[in-house]
Amino acid sequence: MSKIALTPNASGNGVFTITAPNSGTNRAIALPDAAGTIPLLAAASNTAITSTPAELNILDGVTSTAAELNILDGVTSTAAEINLIDGGTARGTTAVADGDGFLTNDGGTMRMTKVETLATYIGTKITGGSMVFIASSGVVSNVATVAFTGFNASAFDHYVFMLQHVKPVADNVLLLCQTSTDGGSNFATSSGDYHASAAVDQIGLIVSDELGNASGEFGVSGRFEIYAPHVASAFTYGLSMGPFMNDNVEIKNNTAFAQSASMRLSAEDTDAVRFLFGSGNITSGEIVMYGIANA
After folding, report:
1. Contact predicate 183/261, CB 8 Å
2. 3-class secondary structure for 142-180?
3. What is the Rg, in whole angstroms, of the alpha carbon atoms belonging to the chain?
4. Among residues 169, 185, 197, which one has the least CA distance to residue 278?
5. Which of 1, 41, 68, 265 has the most CB within a 10 Å radius?
């Protein structure tokens, strides 16, 4: 039978008191089969320590202060979320949209920043004369007009619209571009608001000569440019460079028909445009808007 020996210290003069709890239940405490010092708790507690010695030994050698460890106090991240910064090479394909955020090191301080802030910053680094994507109509299907409002005089001097097989519902109709000075709420639509090189009075800038709509015709592709629309003291010029079909045999171009140049016959600040046919809807195609960065 093992024995328990209490050995007093001959040099001490205090009283070592062991106090039993007020309990009506028999309790058993097993001492470890090892030599060493048993640490004491700073305050009385009935909470059992459930960690194993091996788990507690993980902290052996940790030099963090209590304040440093308390940084984790209140952290609500999941293990999966924390593991995103583990340096792995796995990358997802989640689409990025306005309002999304990303983690950045701001001079040693980690911060969350919105993608709009990143877009603005990148915009300031674009060199003058660069062509920058602004917006796309997406695939068009039987719509009356396609409007663009992404004009920004502080960022762009001119604008380029790339057309891909834009085709009318009606036959033999002009593709036009009308301008706005109030962000697209209203557009100039009267005959004589615009002048073209071949036919003087028009209801819009000339984007393409008359297009056909037969099954063997594929509309107009190419580029339409608008120059300095923000200059309120001068007319806004338009220039079209697009091959097109107005019958199902022959390919043509605006320049040959003297329909490549046109202008808005009013000195004003243009901040939106819309594309439409002289009559009928746009049955198919796509239009993409780019800005030419300020020089």
Report:
1. no
2. EECCEEECCCCCCCEEEEEEEEEEEEECCCCEEEEEEEE
3. 38
4. 169
5. 265
Element (H, E) at 123: helix 115-125
Task: Kindly report the pTM of this predicted structure.
Answer: 0.64
**CB neighbour list of residue 251: distance below 8 Å, 6 or more residues apart:** 243, 244, 245
Distance CA 293, CA 295 (A): 6
Residue 142: which region, alpha, beta or left (left: phi > 0; alpha: psi -120 to 50)?
Answer: left
Phi-psi region of 258 (alpha: psi -120 to 50; beta: other; left: phi over 0): left
Question: Is the pLDDT confidence value at 289 over 80?
Answer: yes
Residue length, the chain? 295
pLDDT tier, 258 (very low <50, low <70, confident <90, very high otherwise): low
In one letter, which amino acid is 125? K
Cα angle at 158 between 120 and 269, to 5 degrees?
90
Contact residues for 95 (Cβ-Cβ < 8 A; gap 6+): none
DSSP code at position 249: S
How far apart CA 133 and CA 150 sit, in angstroms, is 10
Encoded amino acid at 13, one letter: N
